[in-house]
Write a structure and sequence with these properties.
alpha/beta; eight-stranded mixed sheet; two-stranded antiparallel sheet; 10 strands
Length: about 300
């Protein structure tokens, strides 16, 4: 794990813990990064779900910016990512990711205890998983849902020949790893972040045909289905104005079609995909905090 130069360290009053849980299907152990404010009973707790290829430890700067608002935070490493088990970039069925995040969610609720407000943050593919999860389990008890550049469609369309090749390969060797060709420079303008990604041995650029087909199907289903969010859940959608990875316009269309009275959207002009790892991330965090404050008044 590489910490970008200039990034804040974990606050002195926060402890970092780890936990390993068996997955729901018993196939993989899942790794949890736990950030806990020392000597304080949680009032609000947060689950963090990362994007494809990355891992939960990349969100260790969140307690610095959000520690006054969350006393307990858990960042899960999805199967095939970070320090969790599994083939890098592979999943047999996309909904297995939903099982993973719900397991982490239940762990958060157990650690937080009764009466604690539980919020959910998800970035990129983590957003795809979260929205898919809401289709399967619409009442998980989320107070505030914060979505960062969720994957609803890709910015650049996959060539038809590659799509057909993936479908053929899935039936022959669906777990064969291929390189995504992702350029870290497309994720953030911050050179320290780009350098940290390149040196991070937990960060990968692998994807298998079964993962690819499952991811594409999940995004297509989000575009074609009526997404429903519980009325009790407030939604904040934060989008990169210059996203080279996932489509900001597609996410905006999804948001506009969402029949929900407690939703807000912010688009950050010029920012790349990882808005919480960007130059100017302070404003992105500030908008999240303002969103929480407005919720207190509603």
């Amino acid at each position: 794990m590489r910490i970008p130069e200039g990034y804040p360290k974990l606050p002195a009053d926060f402890d970092y813990e780890t936990e390993v849980l068996p997955s729901a299907d018993g196939e993989h152990d899942l790794f949890l990064n736990v950030f806990r404010k020392r000597g304080v009973r949680p009032v609000r707790a947060l689950l963090m779900v990362h994007g494809q290829g990355e891992h939960g430890a990349r969100y260790q700067h969140f307690p610095h910016y959000l520690g006054d608002h969350y006393q307990l935070m858990i960042a899960v490493d999805l199967r095939g990512h970070g320090r969790s088990e599994g083939i890098r970039g592979h999943v047999e069925h996309f909904d297995e990711y939903c099982d993973d995040v719900l397991l982490a969610w239940d762990a958060l609720a157990k650690k937080a205890g009764p009466g604690v407000q539980l919020d959910w943050f998800a970035h990129s593919m983590g957003g795809t998983i979260t929205l898919r999860m809401l289709q399967l389990r619409p009442e998980p008890g989320i107070s505030n849902l914060i979505l960062s550049a969720p994957g609803v469609d890709l910015t650049v369309k996959v060539p038809l020949v590659k799509d057909l090749a993936a479908k053929v390969l899935a039936g022959i060797w669906g777990s064969l790893q291929m390189d995504t060709g992702l350029d870290p420079s497309d994720l953030s303008h911050d050179p320290a972040v780009v350098t940290a990604i390149k040196k991070d041995n937990l960060h990968h650029t692998k994807a298998t045909s079964k993962f690819y087909l499952g991811f594409m199907e999940a995004m297509r289903d989000l575009r074609e289905s009526d997404l429903r969010v519980p009325a009790s859940t407030r939604v904040l959608l934060q989008l990169a104005g210059e996203d080279r990875i996932v489509s900001t316009p597609a996410a905006e269309v999804m948001f506009d079609h969402l029949k929900h009275g407690r939703k807000e959207k912010v688009v950050y002009p010029g920012l790349f995909h990882e808005i919480y790892q960007e130059l100017g991330k302070e404003q992105v965090f500030a908008d999240w905090i303002s969103f929480l404050e407005r919720g207190k008044a509603s």
